[in-house]
Write a structure and sequence with these properties.
By secondary structure, the protein is α/β, with parallel strands linked by helices. The protein has 13 helices and 25 strands. It is globular and about 80 Å long.
């Protein structure tokens, strides 16, 4: 048994008595495979499409492409929104569609191409969102551009771009011309590998029409996609989750429409749906001066969405994408105006992400659905204060701790393994009441690749409070009888954490060149201690680690 000792990162010591009281166990059997380690997590998104080709946006996209074993998928709003391309919070535009004095369509793909060109150059694939309504097509075009800022009412965002088209034939032709242009620019084979989806959260303010009007919007858009490329993949409805918002009722009605209703565009029965999408969010709150997360509503919405899709024979095997899967709803609401979002800069966001992604695998396994993707609605915000508390992966080009969770996931390959542990909350417990008990959730996600086993390990609790580090004993059975090297990577307050380094600098809003370089290094995933080699003649590998609350570790056994 090996106990890791630090080189760069600090190891916390506890007494023998505390060791006995707080020891958690994680057990993995190399022969107990439960499914593929498919990277559904390699999907990301954001509101502001024009950030894509800006300096920090390009840098982050390159990092995402590098960490994933498969092509990353990107979903962004406002790809058809009218405007001059100026980037702003919860806003973006491409001016893809205008009309001349006679009302004839004028198409301009320059900015849309700039976005997709950036993706394709990096090997990233669009999860192409068909929206929002161009000003010249909107039934209620004025006011059109909003100037929302953190602290404003969320309803201020929903302006002329959220309304139905004044002419559905022009809407269908716009979609047809866009897809046709993409085929001409990027090639048929490339575009066949994309997914197209219609609109965003039509059950709330993003859509100012009725449910039936959305179905009409969808039918015409899907018809335009298929008319341009019959082999293209298109779907929806990207509803906001939550029982109070009616998302699952809307999802159910949408599937019924696609199966059995008369298609508004073709007059035939049914509408094509190659991917089904919905959203799921948690609900953090500020309690007694600290942030308390709530994973339960996010897990319940995913469970309910999976069940609805699986309940129809026609859609049971249809790929599912959770179009936004996050700890809460507003990425651009910083912690200054929304104190409950103060979890975003540090390790709380990291441990929550690790623990929730593991539960998404469990949900898909338990319900037998074709789970393809889960979009983390988090990217970056250009020209904003350092560590402002946005829900983003990087700030001013500096990676946040949460990005390192995805780097860890990117190192996991092969088959997922069954994990048991004496401190890991059950899926039912998380769905019922989140992770609020006396004990923290100490769990793991494990995978077996060629000549390696990887374990993503976390110590998570909803309450963002400091606590004694927990001792975790890890056992891996049926390793080959050969020397095994054990390497650990870590995210905590001392490792892979640019935020803590920035605070120790005095939280500068204008860091020096030397400080920026130091922060860039601190933001990368760091090894924890020296790799250790041990014998496995008995077929058993073991390790004991001390993992701080809200810490995440990746253990790699290789031979």
């Amino acid at each position: 048994m090996k106990i890791f000792k630090p080189i760069i990162c600090i190891l916390l010591f506890i007494s023998a008595q505390t060791f006995a009281q707080q020891t958690a166990t994680i057990n993995v059997n190399l022969n107990d495979k439960i499914g593929d380690m498919y990277p559904f997590w390699a999907w990301f998104g954001h509101d502001e499409p024009n950030y894509t080709y800006m300096k920090d946006g390009r840098k982050l996209l390159g990092e995402l492409a590098a960490l994933s074993p498969v092509p990353v998928r990107m979903r962004v709003h406002n790809l058809l929104t009218s405007g001059d391309g100026t980037a702003a919070l919860k806003w973006g535009s491409t001016n893809a569609y205008t009309e001349d004095a006679d009302g004839k369509p004028v198409y301009n793909w320059r900015l849309v191409d700039s976005i997709f060109d950036t993706y394709i150059k990096l090997g990233i694939k669009p999860y192409a969102q068909i929206g929002f309504m161009p000003e010249a097509l909107s039934t209620h075009p004025s006011p059109y551009r909003h100037y929302w800022k953190p602290g404003d009412s969320y309803d201020d965002v929903f302006t002329g771009w959220a309304y139905p088209p004044k002419d559905y034939d022009k809407w269908e032709e716009l979609v047809y011309q866009w897809v046709k242009h993409c085929v001409q620019r990027y090639g048929r084979k490339e575009v066949e590998s994309w997914y197209w989806e219609v609109w965003n959260e039509p059950n709330i303010g993003y859509w100012k029409g009725t449910m039936k009007e959305f179905f009409k919007l969808y039918d015409y858009a899907a018809h335009g996609v298929k008319r341009a490329l019959p082999t293209a993949h298109v779907g929806g409805p990207e509803v906001a989750g939550g029982s109070s918002q009616g998302g699952m009722k809307f999802l159910n009605a949408f599937i019924k429409h696609c199966i059995a209703d008369t298609n508004y565009a073709t007059g035939k029965i049914g509408s094509p749906v190659d991917v089904i999408s919905f959203h799921a969010k948690g609900q953090p709150a500020l309690v007694n001066g600290h942030v308390r997360m709530n994973m339960a509503p996010q897990i319940r919405d995913i469970r309910e969405g999976f069940k609805i899709v699986a309940s129809y024979p026609e859609t049971r095997n249809t790929p599912i994408v959770i179009g936004e899967s996050d700890p809460e709803g507003c990425a651009a609401c910083g912690m200054a105006t929304n104190p409950s979002n103060a979890y975003r800069n540090g390790t709380m966001y990291s441990s929550y992400t690790a623990a929730s992604i593991a539960r998404e695998y469990q949900l898909a396994d338990s319900l037998g659905v074709n789970f393809m993707g889960s979009v983390s609605w988090s990217f970056e915000f250009e020209n904003q204060p350092w560590f402002y508390g946005f829900r983003d992966l990087a700030t001013n080009g500096i990676d946040k701790p949460v990005l390192n969770v995805f780097r860890m996931l990117g190192m996991m390959k092969g088959k997922r393994l069954k994990v048991s542990g004496n401190n890991m909350y059950t899926l039912k417990a998380v769905a019922d009441s989140s992770i609020r008990g006396k004990n923290t959730d100490i769990g793991a996600l494990a995978a077996a690749g060629k000549k390696e086993v990887t374990l993503l390990l976390w110590n998570y609790h909803d309450d963002d409070l400091r606590d004694t580090a927990r001792t975790v004993k890890i056992r891996v059975d049926h390793l080959p009888p050969t020397p095994v090297k054990l390497t650990q990577y870590r995210i905590d307050n001392e490792c892979s954490n640019a935020y803590e380094v920035w605070k120790k600098m005095g939280s500068p809003q204008q860091p020096t060149t030397a400080q920026i370089k130091q922060l860039e290094t601190a933001g990368q995933l760091q090894k924890y201690g020296k790799p250790a080699t041990f014998s496995t003649k008995s077929g058993v590998g073991a390790a004991t680690v001390l993992l701080p609350r809200q810490g995440v570790a990746l253990l790699k056994f290789s031979w």
